[in-house]
Amino acid sequence: MAKTQTILVTGATEGIGKLVAIDLAKKNYGTILIHGRNEVKLNQALAEIRSVNPEAHVEGYLADFSSMEDVRKLAKEILSKHDAINILINNAGAGFSAPRYGKDNTETRFTVNYLAPFLLTYLLLPAIKNAAPSRIVNVASGGQSPIHFDDIMLEKDFNGVTAYTQSKLAIVMFTIDLAEELKGDQITVNCLHPGTYLDTGMVREAGITPHGTAQSGADAELYLALSPELKNVTGKYFNVMRESRANAQAYDVDARKKLREIGMRLTDQT
Description:
Elements: E1 6-9, H1 15-26, E2 31-36, H2 39-52, E3 57-62, H3 68-81, E4 87-90, H4 108-130, E5 134-139, H5 160-181, E6 187-193, H6 201-205, H7 214-226, E7 237-239, E8 242-244, H8 253-266
Helix pairs in contact: 1-2, 1-7, 3-4, 4-5, 5-8
């Protein structure tokens, strides 16, 4: 792929997302847009990325993904400066141990891991279409469990792990749906499990001993974003860098339709 690109990486102030942005800067992949929710961390990440390549064009954007208003403001700010986005990497996420409720007083994991990228992607689609052929990469997880359609925010029986695993299946389902929707637009949409218990803040905050490096997760995300091998591959779930099968519910057309309707309603797109 050409290196005169505009690439947005969400959740890029630490962990895998920051490593993805650093690698893009090292390779001179055009304009790199990074997102974070903490201004201090965002500025530190910008400085670190620029230190590896002082000539890299890097921009920082603030938004709390537990707020749909913040997501809308983020999209508006980005679109005011960029009318073409070649690659969108929906990397931001909330783990097991995140607070139960976010800024919108909705369940944090479902909001950050599914509703925010769902809304952001749709808002940025005009710019992504302008840049075609372009790519969307959604970061899912190997931890997936069926959606609780009768209690999407798990108000009746909350469990942080279940909230996380259903939110990650939701992003896989969104990937499959969106890939189908954009088939004629030269936009590929894929998702991945970047690796099990990698050395990230999310894993350590959950009290889990890391099993692998954050860099290996960054390498997997970059593979989906940049590899020529995946030029015409879309609507797929990858286990790191290998095409795999997600939870069975991901392939249930009725379940995906139901989830999409919920996503549209909760992000006020109906």
